[in-house]
Amino acid sequence: MIDLYYWTTPNGHKITLFLEEAELPYRIHPVNIGKGEQFEPAFLAISPNNRIPAIVDQAPVDGGAPVSVFESGAILLYLAEKTGKFIGSDLRGRVATLEWLFWQMGGLGPMAGQNHHFSQYAPEKIPYAITRYVNETNRLYGVMNKRLADHAFLAGDHYSIADMAAYPWIVPYERQGQKLSDFPHLQRWFDAIATRPATLRAYAKAEDINKVPSVNDEESRRILFGQTARQ
């Protein structure tokens, strides 16, 4: 059994995508980040960066004590290695999977996240910041589009954790100031993942858990964007 500490964000969706695809038994523990539940001591014990998602694997492959993992990329890699699924089995396939997983973690996610912040949430609209991150998001979409011109998925012929990492960050493309029609190979990939049964199940669970944006008032804005080392 996997205990998943989750909220309805792109990083949270990555893990439900994997768990649904792999058909691993899991239970969701909602962590409402707009209400500050990520600062609860019990959660910080497994996620010291006070961010979702995090997991506790109650039945690790070594048969030992439960294993906790935080950071979405680390969780995807852990689950892929646990199950032997959605990661290249040969050297080159594994390298490609890790390249594109880390590309998402270091590029697409952070840049799209800053895009969301400055275009949607910042109390002061700063044109330079908005333009900077909308343009960088556009560049990254272009990188994906070129890769997908001659590959079915990011790591090659097979769906992998690299795709699960990237897909939830493309879902809000309109909020990011992008048009999928400008990126036909990316759109083909996006549409293929959107219709997978596991994707539909994962996003249906998100709807059941939360229908309200995490940032919906001044208090949630303060909680999410006002953190310092003293928090």
UniProtKB/TrEMBL annotation:
<dbReference type="InterPro" id="IPR040079">
    <property type="entry name" value="Glutathione_S-Trfase"/>
</dbReference>
<feature type="domain" description="GST N-terminal">
    <location>
        <begin position="1"/>
        <end position="87"/>
    </location>
</feature>
<dbReference type="InterPro" id="IPR010987">
    <property type="entry name" value="Glutathione-S-Trfase_C-like"/>
</dbReference>
<dbReference type="Pfam" id="PF02798">
    <property type="entry name" value="GST_N"/>
</dbReference>
<dbReference type="InterPro" id="IPR004045">
    <property type="entry name" value="Glutathione_S-Trfase_N"/>
</dbReference>
<dbReference type="Pfam" id="PF00043">
    <property type="entry name" value="GST_C"/>
</dbReference>
<dbReference type="InterPro" id="IPR004046">
    <property type="entry name" value="GST_C"/>
</dbReference>
<comment type="similarity">
    <text>Belongs to the GST superfamily.</text>
</comment>
<keyword id="KW-0808">Transferase</keyword>
<dbReference type="InterPro" id="IPR036249">
    <property type="entry name" value="Thioredoxin-like_sf"/>
</dbReference>
<dbReference type="InterPro" id="IPR036282">
    <property type="entry name" value="Glutathione-S-Trfase_C_sf"/>
</dbReference>
<feature type="domain" description="GST C-terminal">
    <location>
        <begin position="90"/>
        <end position="212"/>
    </location>
</feature>
<protein>
    <submittedName>
        <fullName>Glutathione S-transferase domain</fullName>
    </submittedName>
</protein>
<dbReference type="GO" id="GO:0016740">
    <property type="term" value="F:transferase activity"/>
</dbReference>
